[in-house]
Amino acid sequence: MEVPCVRVPREEGETTRRRLAEDDLIDDGYEISVEEGSLYVPVADPDAVPDDLEVVHRSPSERETQTTPADLLEFDPSYERLGKAALLDEDDTERAREIADAVLESDLPVETVLNKASKVKGETRVRDWELLAGEDTEVTHREYGCEYALDLAEVYFSPRLATERYRVAQQVSDGERAFDMFAGVGPFVVPFAKRGAAVVGVDVNPDAIEYLEENARRNDVEDQVTAINDDVRTVADKYEDWADRIVMNLPHSAGDFLESAVRIAGDDCVLHYYDIQHENDPFGPGERAIREAAEPEYDVTVETRHTVRSYAPHELNVCLDVRLER
């Protein structure tokens, strides 16, 4: 069976392998191989491989199976990975501890196990966690060549949106001015800056802004990033007519901030508007709200109607990529 592999000269192999491993792109189901001076690293998502690396298709040997949590249990547990942490969502405390023990005994590179203890709540969108293994709730997460420090008990972060963040970041050009209205720890801000944009990130959570500043330093983009701890509606006047690109990733209530977004938008601005709506009309409410806020001052063109993921039964998390031209 042919699978996508990154091909690099053998002397660059270890550096490339580490780079792909940091981005969690290596397909552990297949062996890394060497042939005629080239190293071939199987990858799980070829579309996420950095543009400077070559992807080819080969038939590598399957790797001997590693011990997984499912091998140690009588069921296949559900969990998310975030850095060296495993995130559970179990109501049964005994079952959660059983899964945590299996995760730690498996071959997964996990040091911390957390179980969700509440829903996302409050203005800062944080949740409570039960620490089942490890020292604390702070983790280091790597995503598409960027590194993020964050404390899950103090900030909101979803690893499930990694592919969506990458999709948007790929649209950013060198020299742009980008504005993230709900920036969190910087998962949009940092990759935008790495692509050459000047970026302003605003968040009401002071802990998120501290991590955003730290993550800008970690990724060597601190000179391109301005982090502001405030309500974006208070900041909007200062950045009137400023942005070439705006991110509004606050589903359920982004519409309340559209007036500020229109104020921040420059003469030609792309707006990434996130929403959660019923599957019968997932894009209509957002598009109507944007048009009501922006017209007639701007011509409004919906460039992409994109479904990010299923959010709940019959509800979709969607993104509208909208161009505003004055």
Automatic annotation (TrEMBL):
One of its GO terms (biological process) is tRNA N1-guanine methylation. Keywords: Cytoplasm, Methyltransferase, S-adenosyl-L-methionine, Transferase, tRNA processing. PROSITE patterns: SAM_MT_TRM5_TYW2. InterPro entries: MeTrfase_TRM5/TYW2, SAM-dependent_MTases_sf, TRM5-TYW2-like_MTfase, TRM5/TYW2-like_N, Trm5a/b_N. One of its GO terms (molecular function) is tRNA methyltransferase activity. Coiled coil: none annotated. The keyword Methyltransferase applies. One of its GO terms (cellular component) is cytoplasm. Residues 79-326 form the SAM-dependent methyltransferase TRM5/TYW2-type domain. Signal peptide: none annotated. Gene3D superfamilies: 3.30.70.2580, Met-10+ protein-like domains (3.30.300.110), Vaccinia Virus protein VP39 (3.40.50.150). This is Methyltransferase.
